[in-house]
Hints:
The protein is an alpha+beta fold. It has one domain. 57% of the residues lie in helices and 15% in strands. The chain has two helices and five strands; from the N terminus they run H-E-E-E-E-E-H. It has helices at 3-24, 78-129; strands at 26-29, 39-41, 48-50, 56-61, 72-75. It has a three-stranded antiparallel β-sheet. A two-stranded antiparallel sheet has the order 2-3. It starts with a helix and ends with a helix. Zinc ion binds next to loops.
Amino acid sequence: MDLDFVLMMELAEVDLILKELEEGYRKKYFRKDATKPWGFKCYYCEKKVASNEADEFWCVPDTSYGSSGIGRRRFCSRDCSDCYFNEQRNELLEQRKRIMEDRKLLRVFYKEAEREFKEIISAANESYST
Length: 130
Ligand SMILES: [Zn+2]
């Protein structure tokens, strides 16, 4: 398969995950009608958050490599979720940059290969005509 095509597909996937990350970031409210309170540990600061003490929490999709964006991380505060969100986002942007650089490098190789190929063809044609 064409290598550049593979890189383009990778780029499209990173863009899709970026979108998932941005669209999946939300503030949530604890249900207050539950008979038993439930809680969780903030993924970032590890503080315990319980539904009978807090009103709201934040959710960010887990887009780390291999997670396929299905899981979610829960946070105690906007500060904690922002930190995690920015980390995930920077990682994806870094990945995006790397793919762009690979594509640029690939174009240089292709150009060089094309030049060499043309040289060989013209050399072959010359030897035919003599
Ligand atoms: Zn926290």
